[in-house]
Amino acid sequence: MTQARVPQGLPEYDWGTAPTGELATRRQLRAARLRPGGHEPVAVLRCRACATRPHRTCTRPAYLYRVDLAWPIRPMTLAKEAALDAAMAARSTCPVCRRRFHHCLPLRTIGSCLECHDGTPADPASYTTPPAPGTHPLAA
Fold first, then answer.
1. Strand 100-101 and strand 43-45: pairing?
2. pLDDT, block means (10 residues), the chain with 140 residues
3. For the CA atoms of 50, 51, 55, 57, what is the dihedral angle to 10 degrees?
4. What are phi and psi of 96, to 5 degrees?
5. Which of 48, 112, 124, 126 is placed for a possible disulfide with 96 were both Cys, Cβ 3.0 to 4.6 Å?
6. Which positions ≥6 away from 53 have C-beta within 8 Å?
């Protein structure tokens, strides 16, 4: 096992040398359906580029958290799902024709879908038609 350096207060591990069963990054915790749970990071993981330069301060560090102190993630509630769907609807609905696309539209630059902007036909499989009044608002 490699020893961790402690130059900035937290132990530092080079890329690929951190103990995998004990420490994990936020993304690794999320993949395991866990979250830090309010605990502070216990170590720093140096990026791959900085691992070859031991005397250089890492420019893209990743913080490591203890896996045994991690909590399970909170389940998705209906209110949170509705809020996320409303946010995605704002990014993927054309304000001109009101069709909801399966991808985000360039609303800042163009302001509408390509069909409304310059007449480029949209594939009918790439959007849904506007919902009828009084129907359920969630797309999922």
1. unpaired
2. 60 82 92 93 82 70 92 93 94 93 93 92 87 65
3. 40
4. -90, -55
5. 112
6. none
Helix H segments across the chain?
Answer: 26-31, 78-92, 114-118
**Rounded distance, CA 135 to CA 116, Å?**
25
Q: Report d(CA 112, CA 52) in Å as an integer.
A: 47
Q: Which residues, at least 6 apart from 93, have a Cβ–Cβ distance to it below 8 Å?
A: 99, 100, 101, 105
Rounded to whole angstroms, how far apart are CA atoms 88 and 138? 11
Task: Report H helices in 93-131.
Answer: 114-118
pTM: 0.60
pLDDT at 128 (0 to 100): 87
Asked whether 41 and 51 are in contact (CB, 8 A), the reply is no
How far apart are the C-alpha atoms of 51 and 108, rounded to whole Å? 40
